[in-house]
Design a protein that fits this description.
GO terms for molecular function: kinase activity. InterPro entries: Bulb-type_lectin_dom, PQQ_b-propeller_rpt, PQQ_rpt_dom, Quinoprotein_ADH-like_sf, WD40/YVTN_repeat-like_dom_sf. Residues 1-20 form the signal peptide. This is Serine/threonine-protein kinase AfsK. Keywords: Kinase, Signal, Transferase. By secondary structure, the protein is mainly beta. The chain has one domain: Methylamine Dehydrogenase, Chain H (7 Propeller). The protein is built from 1 helix and 36 strands. The chain has one helix at 3-14; strands at 20-21, 33-34, 42-49, 59-61, 64-69, 73-78, 83-88, 90-92, 98-100, 108-110, 113-117, 122-127, 133-138, 148-150, 158-163, 168-173, 179-182, 194-196, 199-204, 208-213, 218-223, 235-237, 240-244, 250-254, 260-264, 276-277, 281-285, 290-295, 301-306, 315-317, 320-325, 328-333, 339-344, 353-355, 358-362, 367-373. Strands 1-4-5-6-7 form a 5-stranded antiparallel sheet, with no helix packed on it. A 5-stranded mixed sheet has the order 2-30-31-32-33, with no helix packed on it. A 4-stranded antiparallel sheet has the order 3-36-35-34, with no helix packed on it. A hairpin with a 2-residue loop joins β31 and β32 (328-333). The longest helix has 12 residues, at 3-14. It starts with a helix and ends with a strand.
């Protein structure tokens, strides 16, 4: 793929073109928001049977929907839920047997490519239209957190992927897969890096937020203290980063000064979800079963909602919050947390994706389903 062919796609993704959801939590900043009207009720638009457990939140380039599933598969659907292509990936074990790879990390799509990272440390770049392998890169580690893309309106796009065990971020050229830079090791890193405003931010088991420039310069390590391991994705907006901690808190951190702006400490159970960041609210989920909305300026709790289960990363469509917990998809009011609608989809589901005005979720029963606003 030539760079000239990539430029229009980069411009589209950097401005979040209609329908695009390039990471598991929306744009590369991982703020988890979309400009979509969902009303008060949802109805099923379509359901696709993947024939095996769907591992992570679907993503979309605005034309196609991509997800990973059991038996080392990466699948592409059109907006009507019809399969376009499917790839299966294997490896040879020490006994000479062919074994399916496992893609636990969410996929990422940008620049006409789909990126899939395996638990064996290989990042594959696939052609979004055909599924053909364009390149692959070996981290020599483990990939469990989502990769992310650095666009910034530039032609020299990068993909960043984390080696979980070493806590080392690899910056690669999108077009070739060649390593451009590599971060310092930071012990174990499970979550996804957030990218925005010329910075990359991610957490680690060192109870710290690590900040790099998008060209790989190490800017700052910010200690959050206590049992503050950051194992979820980090949402970024300007100079601020939002992250959940192992001790249950959600923190807002100034990446320039290194100061903690505020800390929401409603939960005593770990908070490893990625928060959704809106104009006035930050919405996050904790392992105690609750979804919280806090004031964006001060971190004060505005409302909380008990899912009664294990909620995943929430997302926001205008004035509506979507969150899945123990196989149930919930639609809440952003204003006060009132439950408007819910539906049991399976024993377990992925976090929801917002694709072209639809809500798309994967489930452990092998289904990928799309939900739309219900018309009275």
């Amino acid at each position: 793929m030539t760079l000239s062919k990539m430029i229009p796609l980069l411009a589209c993704c950097s401005s979040m073109c209609w329908g695009a959801w390039p990471t598991y939590h929306g744009a590369p900043d991982l703020k988890g928001v979309a400009d979509a009207e969902l009303g008060n009720q949802l109805e099923l638009a379509w359901r696709f049977n993947a024939g095996g457990e769907v591992y992570s939140t679907p993503v979309s380039d605005g034309e196609r929907i991509f997800f990973s599933a059991k038996k080392g598969r990466v699948v592409a659907l059109d907006q009507k839920g019809i399969k376009i292509w499917e790839r299966s990936f294997t490896r040879t074990n020490d006994a000479g047997q062919e074994m399916a790879l496992r893609f636990e990390a969410p996929l990422v799509c940008a620049a006409g490519l789909v990126f899939a990272g395996s638990t064996k440390g290989t990042l594959f770049a696939l052609d979004a239209k055909t599924g053909a392998t364009m390149w692959k890169y070996e981290t020599d580690g483990i990939i469990v957190g989502s990769a992310n893309v650095i666009l910034d309106g530039r032609e020299d796009a990068k993909i960043v992927v984390m080696d979980q065990s070493e806590g080392m971020l690899h910056g690669l050229d999108v077009a070739t897969g060649k390593m451009v830079w590599k971060s310092e090791a930071a012990e174990r890193c499970d979550g996804a890096p957030g990218v925005g405003a010329g910075r990359i931010a991610y957490g680690s088991c060192l109870a710290a937020l690590h900040v790099y420039s998008t060209d790989g310069k190490h800017l700052k390590d910010i200690e959050v203290g206590g049992d503050g391991q950051i194992a979820g994705g980090v949402a970024v907006e300007g100079k601020l980063a939002y992250a959940g901690l192992r001790d249950g808190a959600l923190v807002c951190i100034d990446m320039e000064s290194g100061e903690i702006v505020w800390s929401s400490e409603e939960s005593e159970d770990q908070t490893f979800s990625t928060p959704a960041v809106t104009e006035h609210r930050v919405v996050y989920a904790s392992d105690n079963g609750f979804v919280y909305a806090v004031d964006k300026k001060e971190g004060k709790t505005v409302w909380k909602f008990d899912t009664g289960g294990m909620p995943y990363s929430p997302v926001v469509a205008k004035n509506r919050v979507l969150v899945s917990a123990d196989g149930v998809l919930y639609l809440l009011k952003l204003e006060d947390g009132t439950k408007l609608w819910s539906n049991e989809i399976g024993d377990d589901t992925t976090s929801p994706a917002l694709v072209g005005g639809m809500v798309v979720v994967g489930a452990d029963d092998g289904s990928v389903s799309s939900w739309r606003a219900s018309v009275p």
